[in-house]
């Protein structure tokens, strides 16, 4: 009675994370609606399944790394969702979907005896590839204990409590900070460059000073100064995260003045640079507005 594992959503994050489980000797059954993504994992040794429900007929524990709350709902609870699978006992959701969706999905799955493990991650594609993500887990303790060794393949794991949604609240707090840091760093850098400073020198000074943050240390050196704007996180997903955070704050009565402004900057980024826009394209918005 060996536990079998599945993985749905093999994109920027799910691809490398599924690869890490395979490398650690964990056989995996995989599904992605994008054939090429599934084929990449099959080439690394995974077994392909034709649908979520087919996977749920043969795997006990299923990891998800899907774009939005709507898609996670559809893949878990929809007409062909894994809730109808014969074998699945546990769904480990690595996606960012917000606490309210996590609670609702957890409840619906529990009615069929399936446990929802709220487990969003932070640290980008590089963190997923290297296994250095922060993994934020909320679920019944026994399920956490059973899963811990697998989750540790992704990076340091933090157990936040029993209740679904706690992982999501933690993740939204993190991404609010990460998006705000990028937005405000863009404003500071464009101001400096337009005043005559060298961008590389600015980053050196900021990283030695108190302006240091994840944008000055990571996103600017990797994707903004080289002009590639390809950190591997879609601007529309960043927008989704900040929107979820502002919505959640509104529903519990917490002010989100800066958050709301950053959310609107991401709306504008998507409007200007289209569906394929990268998170770091937010900097191009400030550059073009500032005329640099
Ligand atoms: P992505 O768009 O690169 O990957 C999502 C994958 O899901 C794609 O391969 C897509 O084909 C697949 N998919 C979509 N709908 C599907 C369906 N109905 N059935 C099966 N497969 C389906 O997104 P990503 O960047 O890997 O992000 C995944 C999740 O992780 C999101 O919730 C995101 O917010 C979160 N996240 C992303 C990052 C990052 O830096 N990219 C970091 C932390 C967390």
From TrEMBL:
InterPro entries: 6-PGluconate_DH-like_C_sf, 6PGD_dom2, 6PGDH_NADP-bd, HIBADH-like_NADP-bd, HIBADH-related, NAD(P)-bd_dom_sf
Protein name: 3-hydroxyisobutyrate dehydrogenase
The 3-hydroxyisobutyrate dehydrogenase-like NAD-binding domain, residue ranges: 165-285
Keywords, ordered alphabetically: NAD, Oxidoreductase
Organism (species): Pollutimonas bauzanensis
Keyword Oxidoreductase set for record: yes
Gene Ontology molecular function, alphabetical: NAD binding; NADP binding; oxidoreductase activity, acting on the CH-OH group of donors, NAD or NADP as acceptor
Active site (catalytic residues): 171
Coiled-coil residue windows: none
Domain 6-phosphogluconate dehydrogenase NADP-binding: 5-159
Keyword Membrane: no
């Amino acid at each position: 009675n060996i536990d079998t594992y599945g993985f749905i959503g093999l994109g920027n994050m799910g691809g490398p994370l599924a690869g890490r489980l395979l490398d650690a000797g964990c056989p995996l059954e995989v599904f992605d609606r994008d054939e090429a993504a599934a084929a990449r994992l099959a080439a690394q040794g995974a077994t392909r399944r034709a649908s979520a429900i087919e996977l749920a007929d043969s795997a006990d524990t299923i990891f998800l790394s899907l774009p939005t709350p709507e898609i996670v709902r559809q893949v878990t609870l929809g007409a062909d969702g894994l809730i109808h699978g014969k074998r699945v006992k546990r769904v480990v959701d690595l996606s960012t979907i917000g606490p309210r969706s996590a609670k609702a999905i957890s409840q619906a799955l529990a009615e069929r005896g399936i446990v929802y493990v709220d487990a969003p991650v932070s640290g980008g594609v590089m963190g997923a590839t290297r296994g250095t993500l922060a993994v934020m887990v909320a679920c019944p303790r026994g399920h956490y204990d059973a899963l811990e060794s697998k989750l540790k393949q992704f990076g340091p794991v933090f157990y936040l409590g029993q209740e679904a949604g706690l992982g999501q609240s933690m993740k939204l707090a993190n991404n609010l900070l990460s998006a705000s840091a990028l937005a405000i760093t863009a404003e500071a850098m464009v101001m400096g460059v337009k005043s005559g400073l060298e961008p590389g020198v600015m980053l050196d000074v900021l990283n030695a000073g108190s302006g240091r943050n994840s944008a000055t240390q990571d996103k600017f050196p990797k994707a903004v100064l080289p002009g590639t704007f390809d950190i591997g996180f879609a601007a529309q997903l960043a927008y989704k995260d900040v929107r979820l955070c502002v919505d959640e704050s509104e529903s519990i009565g917490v002010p989100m003045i800066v958050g709301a402004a950053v959310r609107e900057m991401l709306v504008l980024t998507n409007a200007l640079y289209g569906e394929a826009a990268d998170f770091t394209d937010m900097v191009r918005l400030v550059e073009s507005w500032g005329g640099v």
